[in-house]
Every structure is written in C-alpha cells, then in structure tokens.
Write a structure and sequence with these properties.
Length: 131
C-alpha cells in the first residue's frame, strides 16, 4: 500500500496495489502542467486508487485529447492523470507519494519534444514519442 498527498495536505490518497513502471514524460503538455522539464508518473489500476481525504478540493482540467489532469484546487499540486480511452488506469504523479518507493525510472517518453535546455542524465531507455 502507498499513501500520498498534495503540498498543502488538503488532499490525501491511498493506493491499494502496486505501482506500475515509473515513466518520465517530456512532452510540452507535461512540461506546462508541471512547470518543470518532465512529469514523473506511474500507472495504477483505477480500482486501487482512492481519495481518502479532501475530495472536495480536487479539480480537473480536460485537454482536447480526452486527458484529465486532477490537481488540488487549494495548492495546485498535480495528483493524477487519466485518459478517457483508458478508464481502468490512472497515472499517479510520483512526486506526491508520501510512502517511499525505491523504483527507478523505467523510461523517458516524448524526448523528441523535450526542452532544449534539458539533459537526461540516466541510462533508462528513451523514446522519441510513446512506445
């Protein structure tokens, strides 16, 4: 089991299963959503992901591609992403985990559109788009 929360602590969640492979996405949408070079996500079964506190603080942004980004409406912390075409999976923002995870990044995706100033320092596989 894993637990996580937003920056201000208003939203707390629990994962009653395993984390999937940790992926760093370097696409321009993820950079804008995080204000950073990439987003770190792990797929989790939707049935294993539960908001245990502060569901009323969650807000969602739907992009034109049918992707929903859920975040804390109080502090702005991104919590999960979810595709309408894959309702059985959520992508948890790894930076919001409170429970330690010792997994390493499994791959980098959309490196073809990564920020020109970014240097990827590890040896995880890199894909120009989504593999």
């Amino acid at each position: 089991m894993y637990k996580g929360s937003c920056l201000c602590g208003a939203v707390e969640y629990q994962i009653d299963g395993e984390l999937g492979p940790i992926v760093y996405c370097h696409c321009s949408r993820c950079r804008k959503a995080t204000g950073s070079a990439f987003t770190a996500v792990s797929p989790v079964a939707s049935s294993d992901f539960h908001i245990v506190k502060g569901g009323e603080y969650l807000r969602s942004y739907r992009s034109g591609s049918g992707f929903h980004r859920a975040f804390c409406g109080n502090c702005g912390s991104p919590i999960i992403g979810k595709r309408e075409s894959l309702p059985e999976t959520v992508r948890v923002r790894i930076g919001t985990l409170d429970t330690p995870s010792y997994a390493k990044v499994s791959s980098h995706i959309f490196v073809g559109s990564k920020a020109e100033w970014e240097n990827i320092p590890d040896d995880a596989p890199q894909y120009q788009e989504h593999p």
